[in-house]
Amino acid sequence: MTVREIYELINSFAPFSGKCEWDNCGLLVGSENDVVSKIGFSLDATAETIEEAAKNGCSLLVTHHPIIFRPISALNPGDPAYIAAKLGIAVLSVHTPFDKSDPGVNTALAEKLGLVNIKRLCGEGEASMCMMGELDSPLSDSELSALCSKALNAAVTYSPFDGKIKKVAVCGGAGGEFYSDAKKYGADALVTGEAKHHEFLGAKSEGIALLAAGHYETEAPAVETLMELVKKGSGAECVLINQSKPTKFTGAI
């Protein structure tokens, strides 16, 4: 099996043609003709995950976040792309096509939170990547925050909300800007990875709870989903690559 065949398989459920215009994804290190012996999966292509993939005998690392995001003028020995090339590991990054796919990042997040009746939020543009589901039982803002903290092992920041929350929209990563779309389509709350100060203010003003549970924490559940889709479609030997959290928090979660 070649890298190109794995690319085409992923393209069948998360079309790369649908990537956001600012995104850089696809095969970013290596050749499409490289032979794939074993595939590793991680959220990020870091020195840590690339070296772990090499130890596991992987010739291809599939990640969510791009190993190369912005244009670079030089490659240094410590750069992940340099390390991957040196170790002979191809890197295929899926990013926004997997944000938009179903199953994908946001279906995995919705399922991790125990939501039911999950469907795509009917927003426009990038807001359409959000998913929305329902809680089994209505919760207060603090109760939903505690649920997110436990399910994702995350520190959660949230805006206050009066009343009970039943319908919850989700957008893994940096999706705080979509609170208004979520409100428009009936959500009582939006759970995302990170949100800006003015987005918390806007959500409170519009009467929707906005919860930020960490970029890593809200997207990490989807890595296993991605691996299972590739494993099922290709029959290739696949392995989850251990990745440590990039952040720490003071106090108990």
Distance between the first and last residues' Cα: 44 Å
The helix-and-strand class reads alpha/beta
Largest sheet: 6 strands, mixed
Q: In what range is the share of β-strand residues?
A: 15-25%
List the total number of helices: 10
Can you describe this structure?
With 253 residues, this protein is an alpha/beta fold. It is 35% helix and 20% strand. The chain has helices spanning 3-13, 47-55, 80-87, 96-100, 105-112, 141-152, 179-184, 197-206, 215-219, 221-234; strands at residues 26-29, 39-42, 60-63, 90-93, 116-120, 131-139, 157-158, 165-171, 189-192, 209-212, 238-240. The strands form 2 sheets. Strands 5-6-8-9-10-7 form a 6-stranded mixed β-sheet. A 5-stranded mixed β-sheet has the order 1-4-3-2-11, sandwiched between helices. It is elongated, with a radius of gyration of 19 Å.
Task: Summarize the SSE layout with pairings.
Layout: H1 3-13, E1 26-29, E2 39-42, H2 47-55, E3 60-63, H3 80-87, E4 90-93, H4 96-100, H5 105-112, E5 116-120, E6 131-139, H6 141-152, E7 157-158, E8 165-171, H7 179-184, E9 189-192, H8 197-206, E10 209-212, H9 215-219, H10 221-234, E11 238-240
Parallel strand pairs: 2-3, 2-11, 3-4, 8-9, 9-10
Antiparallel strand pairs: 1-4, 5-6, 6-8, 7-10
Helix pairs in contact: 2-3, 5-10
